[in-house]
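Example record

One chain of 258 residues, shown exactly as stored in the release files.
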Amino acid sequence: MTEVSSPSGRTDGFISDYWTESRRPLISLIFISPLLVVYEIGILALGPAAVRNGADVWLRQLLELMDFGQYFLLPALTVCILLAWHHATREPWRIRGEVLSGMAVESVLLAICLRLILQLQGGLFDIVIATVAPLAKSVPLSISQTLGGLVGFLGAGVYEELLFRLILLSALAWGMWRSGLTWGWSRVIAVVLTSLIFAVAHYIGAYGDPVDLFAAAFWFGFLFRFLAGVFFSILFVYRGFGIAAGTHGAYDILVGLF
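Predicted structure tokens for this chain:
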């Protein structure tokens, strides 16, 4: 007698496959490619009206210090890093369209979850300081309402996750593990440290937010950015680079434009 698999069995199989495949570097590269292309073309097309992402600027400045100032070198390196990572994992070189669709839906849902965390933090601050309530709508990671701002949101999703999670978090975790810490503690400490750096980075440079240690708005924004850093770090560790970058970009668009 031929066995017929049940719909629930097929669903469970897809969920299991999706959980594994969506974390792979290759599908992360395919998933973020539209964000990367639109961002880079948008920056060139908009010119002075473009809002270039801070992580993008810092990475390009680092490359220029090493005499690698070619414009398209950074996106090319991003592609090469993900391809090399996938090669090192020895995972199959295939992608499934339904996995990409699932990643898009998951990123949007996770972005909504982060938006709810912002609202919850605003409510908690409101209990302590009544005047902080409006900040739940006024302290997103980016506040531009222009087309240039939209392009910048896409760049944040890719390059901030590249810098703070893929490069810094991975390097710190590996370094502490090599120094003798367990892999679990290495990742926890790396998540905390890179999340603090991520929060501080939003107050650096000409476009950074002002620092006022005596203002509730400053601490509200700093705390949320730290929590957002932890949120994105957990996504990177457990859901992969693609989901972390997609969620970051979707959150910025959700808060910045709606």
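Notes: Residues 61 and 67 are 10 Å apart (CA to CA).
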